[in-house]
Design goal:
about 300 residues; alpha/beta; FAD/NAD(P)-binding domain; 2 domains; seven-stranded mixed beta sheet; five-stranded parallel beta sheet; 17 strands; binds NADP nicotinamide-adenine-dinucleotide phosphate
């Protein structure tokens, strides 16, 4: 059968690539479908310093190494965007905007997409000052005044990154404590050109052709201040985008896919790994671990499927 695989993996981040490596080494026919750059979220992370064996490595370099590792084992990457995953039949179908593929089993590894603020002006000024990726767009704001929203590791790292380019960075966070790691928050607090705007949320984005100012509402004082900015970076995490799956896949209240400890979802033959599933920790290490488990369990599933001609 054309375009038929034992295992199809959707998403070429650390979880998907690790699953690909394990599946290939187990002798399965496997392919990874990726719509963008391999590496997932780490490809846009300036620096990774908590992945065992790498005390400090640029995200893009780690992503490249993972891609090269899989490629050296002849794990094929299909660079297409998935439109639908049909999960209800025994043979699963993955339909992209270019082709149709089928497989005994599918490992969902496409992570989560960026969260939006959902405030007035956000959509209007997207790409006109509103950005969701500091490493992609930061260079446009040399010696400018920017604001950044968020309190996780991404926001802290991106604030530090931007503070080396922009003249001033307002770091706006909805609480007075950061979710991100202590060593990053101390660096942020010690940076002279980063001003913390805590217990606050952006309530409106204004401008003409491009962003000119933001309204910031302080939840404690109940006051709204207008801050003039040249750019606004939204770094408030990511959420799963599971609309492409046609079956009734079980999700938690936040929309993350529920799996068991073998990364199996409630749909026979469908596994989920990494940021997309309801895991207690979303890190490179945990995504890789998920990928290894899913591929191993997919191997068992495929053996049975072949035998029973499932
Ligand atoms: P995150 O950890 O989920 O943090 C999101 C931040 O945005 C939180 O501070 C949250 O506030 C805030 N937030 C969420 N929705 C908001 C809204 N609607 N309005 C205003 N603020 C909002 O996301 P992340 O920083 O992107 O990190 C994702 C994962 O990747 C984490 O596990 C992180 O540790 C990991 N990561 C690791 C590294 C590294 O190790 N080098 C680098 C980047 C990311 P609350 O705190 O109040 O909920």
């Amino acid at each position: 059968m054309d375009n038929f695989y034992d295992v199809l993996i959707i998403g070429g981040g650390p979880g998907g690539i690790t699953a690909g490596i394990y599946a290939k080494r187990a002798g399965l026919s496997v392919a990874i479908i990726e719509k963008g750059m391999p590496g997932g979220a780490i490809a846009n992370t300036p620096e990774v310093s908590n992945y065992t064996g790498f005390s400090k490595i640029e995200g893009i370099e780690l992503a490249t190494r993972m891609f090269e590792h899989a490629s050296a084992l002849d794990v094929p990457f299909i660079f297409e965007e998935v439109k639908t995953v049909q999960t209800n039949d025994k043979i699963k179908k993955v339909i992209t905007y270019d082709n149709e593929y089928s497989a005994y089993t599918v490992i969902l590894a496409f992570g989560a997409s960026v969260r939006k603020l959902n405030v007035e002006g956000e959509h209007q000024f997207m790409g006109k000052g509103v950005s969701y990726c500091a490493t992609c767009d930061g260079a446009l704001y040399k010696n400018s005044v920017v604001a950044l929203v968020g309190g996780g590791n991404t926001a802290l790292e991106d604030a530090l990154y931007l503070s080396n380019l922009a003249s001033k960075v307002y770091l706006i966070h909805r609480r007075d404590e950061f979710r991100g790691e202590k060593y990053l928050s101390s660096q942020v607090k010690n940076k002279a050109n980063i001003e913390l705007v805590l217990n606050s949320v952006v309530s409106k984005i204004s401008g003409t052709d491009k962003i000119e100012s933001i309204d910031v509402f302080n939840k404690q004082t109940k006051q709204t201040n207008t801050i003039n900015v040249d750019g606004l970076f939204v770094c408030i995490g990511r959420g799963p985008d599971t609309d492409m799956i046609d079956g009734d896949i079980q999700k938690d209240s936040a929309g993350y896919i529920v799996t068991d400890q073998n990364m199996k979802t409630n749909i026979d033959g469908i596994f989920a790994v990494g940021d997309i599933r309801n895991t207690p920790l979303r890190q490179i290490a945990t995504a890789c671990s998920d990928g290894a488990i899913a591929a191993t369990k997919a191997f068992e599933y495929v053996l049975l499927a072949r035998k029973t001609n499932k």
